[in-house]
Known about the structure:
The chain is 49% helix and 8% strand. The chain is an alpha+beta fold. It has 2 domains: 108-346 and 783-794, no CATH class; 352-774, no CATH class. Strands 1, 2, 3, 4, 5, 6, 7, 8 and 13 form a 9-stranded mixed beta sheet that branches. It has a two-stranded antiparallel sheet with strand order 9-10.
Amino acid sequence: MDTEASTCPQDSNSTDCLLRTLVQILNGAQKADDAKYDWDPVTFAFTVVVGAVALLFALVPIVQTIIAPGQGSRTTNRLAIGEKWSKESSRQWNWRQWTYEYTVITPIFRMQTLRKWVQADIDNIKNDIDETNFGSGIDEICEERTRHTDPEKHIACPNSTDDKNTEKDSEGLKSALITILRYFLPRQTSAHSENRPAATWIDFFHKVGLDRIDPRDDLGRRKVTADYLPSDLVAAPAYAQIGVIVTAASTTPGWAKWPTDPSSNFPVIFGYGFQFDFRQHPILGVLGAYSQYSKRQQDQDDSRNIPGIFGLQWLYDKTRAGKDALQKKEEREKLLSYHSLSRLKVAISHSRASIEADRQSLFSTGPDDPLSVINLSTSHHRVEVLRYMLKLSKEDMHSRAQGAFMLDYGGLSHEQYMPIVGLFLASTPRYVPTLFPTDLLSKRPPLTLLALNGHFWTNVTRESVKGDDMSDWPVSLQTSDWDQNVIQWVNDGMDKLGRVKGETLEAVFKETKRSIYHHLQCQGVGATKPAVGLKVVLHLCMKLLHNDKTFRTWFSKYHPAVAAYLRRIIHLQLQLLDRWFLNSNHNTSSTQSRAIRICNTTLALTLANEKAPKKDDSTSPVPDELDQTVWHLLSNTLEWIEDLMNSIGLTPETLESTRSDWEPEKSSDVKNRSIQNTGTQEEDSDEILVPLAAQMKPRDKDLKYLACAHYNKKWELLNTHQMLDRLDKVASSRADSSYRKRRFQHRDGGDVANEKTTDDMIIFRCILIALLFQTAPDNAALIKSGVWEQVVAIV
């Protein structure tokens, strides 16, 4: 059938039929046109662009959901935890959640592992410097030198030669180019100062030197999934024991203190220009937060950024001068790292009451001597310490010196011998102690008993140090009792106390060192140079001697910067004394003999003080009398010794009779076994016919307590006689002693003036050791509270 034929009925309206047919034809044509695609290039291109844009808008939310930085990415990137630790982060696709999971490794520092890592890094630096043939030793730089170097440079070093050479490296063509470029170009700011990481532990580790340490095993690295950290953290945290945080903060330049917050029992660490406090977090528990409110030090080598713009730095580095400058810079960075790590190592030892004993100035030690460190709070090094003291005592007795004797150290407890022996064996610390658990020690050094062995120290009265304000102390301190050929006293340091502030501490101390260096130069090059003594330090020692119970409270009232300055000049005074003791023209054997004699005598006096009856308060001297000396403070002990001497009686005849029967090797062997608690107590059944034995019989119990030995054997009589003779000398030295008047004709003429001053110098050094560690910031309360070992996160 023809589709174009008319389908209108004959009796219908032809017009309507035609119109209907026309509409149908037009609709069919329109549908045919709509089914076709217009391949016109302009239309096609426009359609593609519109479709692509629509597709892009549809994909943006999907892609953003996948790759947008989430919690894990934000807390582990370079801006959050720095370039070094951001490289330790990794990500893994999670098909379940259709997102990336970020994990990061951050350091965790514990005291035990930190000590090993620090020592390993120090050894590596030493090996590197030896391999590059830099200098004769790592310690030979301005700030710290060993006993084997020139002590004058060790004390003074106003301007290091190396520093001058380094400054000269910037002269010449490079300096001129930098000056010109700085004039025409705006100052460039390093990226390091612009984009500091958000994590405060990055700045804290840089401040205290922990950034120089790389944890070497899993014990020092902690892996966490950063996506599940609390949302209020801006960076992945590091971890450390509170003890590590306090110890590291104490080594910062200037000063540091850590009072305990009574509301949390955690410390709040204050230092020059920074603060570190601990806060409670609802999920992570205790968090540590570091804040620095002083201006950060600018990069000393920022001049490299300016010529580097035009490649001038690259050209300069290719020259001989540039290569030398780079090499010196690398060597200097190694030295700075070495000293930063060494300070931290010393602080770690001091935090547990361990002190160095490897660089002796009173006693000679060999390279193979096992006594390198001693702990004042535990008997961990008991055998090494007591064997060493026994060896020194034996050598002194072999010299047949008057008053030389040996104690049975095995009969002494740690609380009896260590407070005294530690003063003599302690080396001058390589760095000023920044903390020490003073209150953790069971007993403080008996300085008044030590002073009985001296001449100057027995004449010091309370009136000499009655002022609580150091500005009131007299500059004209009387030092006539000291031999001027042995020590010269100067007033340096006293006038600078008022100028010490946080920002001027280093400058004022360097000025004091230059002044001391001037005094050393004025001494010339003579063979017997006297030591240099600081009167302000002598004042402090005298005040500690007469106010040992209240001294730390008085000292803590001063500003931390002033206290840090005083402790530095105390350390400087120790170095000056070591310079005198270690002088090649000094009789070191005589010093060692007198030092061990004073040490043993102080131990015997301590035992006598425990044995002597205590007087009632009503009969004891008034404690506030200004004319009191150590004689008055220990009058009951001295009277007990005088009574002991009167009941025995020592004569030249008793000395000779005991000397003939002395068996030193047997006596020493028994004492050596006693140190290890393996010796058996032997009893001598033979009757001893030496006259002194019969004279000692009534006081057997007292003598046994003093000598800590079985003195009633033939080979112990001389040792006991020597001990009694030494105590006799101490007791008879009291000017107002009636016993002195009765016994003086039996004694020798006494020590010559320089020997008395030598004894005073030995006592002076021991008091300085006590003063240096007694004034160190105390961390005993943190150790006792248990928070010292607690590991916390640092945000």
